[in-house]
Specification:
Blueprint (H helix, E strand, L loop, with lengths): L5 H19 L9 H15 L5 H7 L2 H19 L2 H10 L5 H19 L1 H18 L5 H15 L7 H10 L3 H26 L1 H5 L14 H5 L16 H29 L3 H41 L3 H16 L4 H4 L4 H19 L2 H10 L7 H17 L2 H17 L3 H17 L9 H12 L9 H20 L4
Subcellular location: Cell membrane
Keywords: Cell membrane, Membrane, Transmembrane, Transmembrane helix, Transport
Membrane topology: Multi-pass membrane protein
């Protein structure tokens, strides 16, 4: 593709640069409008600067990907309502044999749940629970938060529904669900194990001894709190932190909460001791609750059946978006209630972010810069030899952390596949799978590498009474060796 006129190249690059800065640093002081508004700003500038026409901007929006995202989000909301994630949480604490065993369980459950329910959803649901587990056992939170985020990214690589860039690749490459899983699953399984071993090696001493100072917040972590954690939709929001005044305020609130719980226990004892009539009433209420729970069993089983059917249909049908939407509508009908409260939990800001990103990336593509850069690297990045695969992996790793993994897939996907198709059809499929693997694992390199990392960091920082800050450098210290080693091993296993 030839380079566009110089004016369009400059203005298109400027628009893309603004989009990139706001996507990576959503709270920059000079324009703290966030990622979603930043993507729309980049798209609007592309049209205003006449890099692309309005009709081309509309055509750039990939409706199948948006449909697949929407359907998957709705299914995840209904899965949460059926308490499916609560059972995952119970597995973390069942007969745990210590911090190292707990770390390995978090890696395993995070990887599996991410492959089935997307990495962002798993991180939103499990972050606060993992933080509570660490605080309850008086353990440092950051190894477990790193285990959750990194394993979620690695695990999500195994399926087209695991993360956003895999959705893009599945739609563009038309690779069937089953073939996609078979191609990447061995790399994912080995990658999760290697990642867990790296975590254990780095934090072995820290996990072998408990912290000397007991955290005051651990006192309020009860078993019922861990089993009642609820899902909240993933959002692309800013970072926040607790200052000392806010912490002191929350500490006072904790003390009031403890006193309130003690008073509630005293009142409960006094109420139960009133007599047999009250006991009979309590028994009747207990039976009513049990009957209500039996009534709720059918919808829960229905949700599990529909969700399983969705994944089964993916194995045989390449039209993933319609399958996801059909599953979401089936759950809405099965629930037999107004679906509006559930639909309101869908993170529409992410869908809007994708719309703006599609337009911005398409405009940048039309400048000719990505095509010419790939033309320079193409001869060195052929996947028919080890050196070419290594060069391609490095290019994807760098771009995924500079421009984010989804824009990288949009920029390189068609070009990498076309270059591999010139060799053979099998190499074209392998090129798509390499792109999926490397762009996903690249999210572990730095805190800004993937949305899942940001979700874990933000959820942990905002957790009531348990706030913890996972710093950029602490993540980078683990992320660099883990990403390089896991990526290299996985590349040898992709089929």
């Amino acid at each position: 593709m030839a380079m566009a006129p110089a004016v369009k190249v400059v203005l298109g690059s400027l628009s893309f640069a603004i989009f990139w800065v706001l996507a990576v640093f959503p709270a920059v002081p000079f324009l703290p409008i966030g990622r979603t508004a930043g993507s729309l700003l980049g798209a609007m500038l592309m049209v205003i600067f006449q890099v692309i026409t309005p009709d081309q901007a509309y055509a750039a929006i990939d409706l199948p990907i948006l449909g697949l995202l929407f359907g998957t989000m709705v299914v995840s909301v209904y899965l949460e309502r059926a308490d499916m994630f609560k059972y995952l949480s119970k597995l973390l604490s069942w007969k745990s044999r210590g911090p190292k065993d707990l770390l390995c369980r978090i890696c395993l459950i995070s990887a599996i749940s991410s492959a089935l329910f997307t990495n962002d959803t798993s991180c939103v649901v499990l972050t606060e629970f993992v933080l509570k587990i660490a605080r309850q056992h008086n353990l440092p939170p950051h190894p477990f938060l790193l285990a959750l985020a990194s394993s979620a990214n690695i695990g999500s690589s195994a399926t087209p529904i695991g993360n956003s860039q895999n959705l893009v690749i599945a739609v563009q490459s038309k690779i069937f669900f089953g073939n996609f899983v078979i191609g990447i699953l061995p790399a994912m399984l080995v990658g999760v194990i290697v990642n867990a071993l790296i975590l254990l090696a780095m934090y072995w001493k820290l996990l072998s001894s408990q912290k000397d100072e007991e955290d005051a917040t651990a006192e309020i972590v009860a078993e019922e709190d861990m089993n009642s954690h609820r899902f909240s939709p993933a959002t692309l929001s800013h970072f926040t932190s607790l200052n000392p005044q806010e912490w002191n305020s929350q500490k006072g609130h904790v003390e009031n909460t403890l006193r309130s719980r003690a008073n509630s226990v005293d009142n409960e004892i006094h109420r139960v001791s009133r007599g047999a009539s009250d006991s009979a009433r309590i028994l009747i209420e207990s039976n009513e609750v049990s009957f209500q729970r039996r009534e709720e069993t059918v919808p829960s089983m229905g949700v599990a059946s529909v969700a399983s059917s969705r994944d089964f249909l993916y194995l045989w049908d390449s039209t993933c978006p319609w399958t996801a939407i059909a599953a979401a509508l089936s759950l809405a009908v099965l629930d037999f209630k107004d679906a509006r409260p559930n639909l309101e939990k869908v993170s529409y800001s992410i869908l809007i972010f994708f719309c703006g990103m599609f337009i911005t990336v398409d405009g940048f593509n039309r400048t000719g810069i990505p095509s010419n850069l790939w033309d320079l690297m193409e001869t060195y990045a052929q996947i028919d030899h080890i050196g070419g695969i290594a060069v391609l992996a490095v290019v994807i790793l760098v771009l995924s952390n500079l421009a984010s993994n989804v824009p990288t897939v949009l920029l390189l996907g068609a070009r990498v596949a076309a270059s591999a198709a010139a060799i053979s059809e099998a190499d074209e499929k392998k090129a798509w799978l390499i792109l999926a693997w490397v762009s996903t694992v690249a999210g572990n390199l730095s805190l800004m590498g993937s949305a899942a990392n940001l979700i874990v960091c933000e959820q942990a920082r905002r957790a009531p009474y348990l706030g913890y800050t996972l710093s950029f450098w602490r993540h980078l210290k683990f992320g660099v060796p883990s990403t390089l080693i896991v990526t290299a091993i996985g590349l040898t296993l992709i089929r």
